[in-house]
Amino acid sequence: MPNLEHPAYPAADLLRLESLVPCRESQVSMLLSIFGERQQFSFPSIFIYGHTSSGKTYVMQTLLTTLQLPHVFVNCMEYFTSRLLLEEILIQLQTCSSDTEQASPVHCDSFNDFVRLFKQAVASRELQDQTLYVVLDRAEQLREMEANILPAFLRLQELTDRNVTVVLLSEIVWELFRPNVGCFEPFTMYFPDYSIGHLQKILSQNHPPEYSADFYAAYINILLGVFYMVCRDLKELRHLAALNFSKYCEPVVRGEANERDTRKLWKNIEPHLKKAMQTVYLREISSSQWERLQHDGGEPGQLKGLSAHTHVELPYYSKFLLIAAYLASYNPVRTDKRFFLKHHGKIRKTNFLKKHEKTSNHLLGPKPFPLDRLLAILYSIVDNRVAPTANIFSQITSLVTLQLLSMVGQNDQLDGPRYKCTVSLDFIRAIAR
User: Is residue 413's pLDDT more than 70?
Assistant: First the structure.
């Protein structure tokens, strides 16, 4: 018996919709009851929130497309200014109201112009007889626009006197949206995270046709047992499942095990899943590189990813600042004269140096150093003359923000700030090359 039932929509469309949105039947049923019939006025604005990869965008797109409801779908991250956003809505409205795919350019400088042009765009009989849905994905970007944009969208039905519903999709709660002056309160709806059972059911639907559904479901169960505690992003898990399935099938392909021999299959896939655990979310290497790495039996560190080349993105003087900070952290102050002065005089070998020559500073960790010592070492290792401008000091602040340097103590110290270098020797060697 189907879970989705509504008298205004054909049973075949609802059955197809139910198959396309597994584990989200209750949310879809709630949306259908809010939407009502096609010609009825729906709620003026709906706010849907939930964590990333909880199905908000997919469910809304699938619902509107499957039931063939007139709609406009705009990503606020792509159209990041109010003018771009309003013009894109009007351009998509032209496509909805006409049979031609080509839309003429639209110029909209204010929300007053948008309301006027919106009324003209929905003047066709097709859009007047049923509810038009304006869906704004990544709606948290509206907070960065003019103060009147969000309250106006919430009252768009009232301002235009048309049958329109605005749907806001966001990853943050409504309390972080609400303006101080107050505005029309939308109908809020929460999309919870997928449970491990939901993820098992959704991911198992993508099984390859050459293998049985039970075999692929067992593989997904192993995958979730490894990654569920650190990753619950459906897109990332789907990517990991597609990337590592060929390695899981190797014993079956070679004839060393059958599909029910779970123990042999697990022993074959376990080391490769541990390697994949190191690159979850990072995308340091491409899928083809990862497959080549699995085939060769190498380690992920053998392929240089983004984190291995972070120094390339640093500005010119930031590299020298980082090298100077490393030298200041791991070299004692008494050695500066010997290392960085050309005419430092005669150096006496004292018993103190002989006593401590076996102790490595790398084992003791980085030592704090003052700002003036950092700049003094910088001036000595850079070939050309460097003026102590605001640009140099801002780059030091940027290195602290990137956590390549750490500030020790408080900012209001009388003797100036003190820093520590937090990067490794390999990182400094890569920059020095």
Answer: no
Question: Which contacts (CB < 8 Å, 24+ apart) does range 405-410 have?
Answer: 405/322, 405/325, 408/368, 409/368
Mean pLDDT of the chain: 84
- The DSSP code sequence of 336-387 is HHHHH-SS--PPP--HHHHHHTTS-HHHH-PPPEEHHHHHHHHHHHSSS---
- Tell me the one-letter amino acid at 17: L
Letter for the amino acid at 431?
Answer: I
DSSP per position, 136-194: EESGGGGGGS-TTHHHHHHTHHHHHTSSEEEEEEESS-GGGT--TT--PPPEEEE-PPP
Instruction: State how far the Cα of 379 lies from the Cα of 81, in Å rounded to an integer.
Output: 44
User: What is the value of pTM for the model shown?
Assistant: 0.68
Q: Enumerate domains of the chain plus CATH numbers.
A: 11-190 (3.40.50.300), 196-308 (no CATH), 316-340+362-432 (1.10.10)
Nearest CA-CA partner of 331 in 293, 358, 360: 360
